Amino acid sequence: MNGLESLYQELILDHSKRPHGKELAEETGRTATSIQRNPVCGDEITLRVRVSDDGERVLDVTWEGAGCSISQASASMLSALVDELGEEADGDGMPRADVDARIEGFRTALRSRGTVPLDEEIFADAAALSGVSKFTARVKCAMLAWVALEDALERA
User: Cα(94)–Cα(88) distance, rounded to whole angstroms?
Assistant: First the structure.
């Protein structure tokens, strides 16, 4: 294992042990919740998204769940990404179009079987999940929270 892979492995373990956003926020304002399960390995994520009144900005993503370190780290990384980029936008939340583009980019990279890496500038810590794309059985684990966010946004 090279140094970068080792660093990424540590980052995944750190997010799974000390997750960001792992406590469902109360349903206030315009919120939607999605429950997603991976029957193959038993991972489960309940994700709640809060959006602006016009639905154009994602204000926060919280979640709870159980499962492998990849699914839990991925949910944590997603929540942190939305928070970080929302703060960069003067605390007004992350534009919905940017969230949708990141979900699609994440899906494309994870389905690429290692040919499309995740850019750290765009995906922050979630770029550490690039290597998961080489392990088909683990892709669903990493995608679970992202699919839950996509589903919740359709409901919001």
Answer: 8
Q: Give the sheet arrangement for strand 30-38, strand by strand.
A: 30-38, 43-51, 57-66, 94-95
DSSP string, 46-58: EEEEEE-TTS-EE
Q: Are 51 and 28 in contact (CB under 8 A)?
A: no
Cα-Cα-Cα-Cα torsion 76, 74, 121, 9, nearest 10 degrees, comes to 100
More confident of the two residues 86 and 61:
61
pLDDT at position 100 over 90 = yes
pTM: 0.93
Beta strands in the chain (DSSP E): 30-38, 43-51, 57-66, 94-95
For 8, other C-beta atoms within 10 Å of its C-beta total 19
Burial class (CB in 10 A: 0-12, 13-18, 19+), 90: exposed
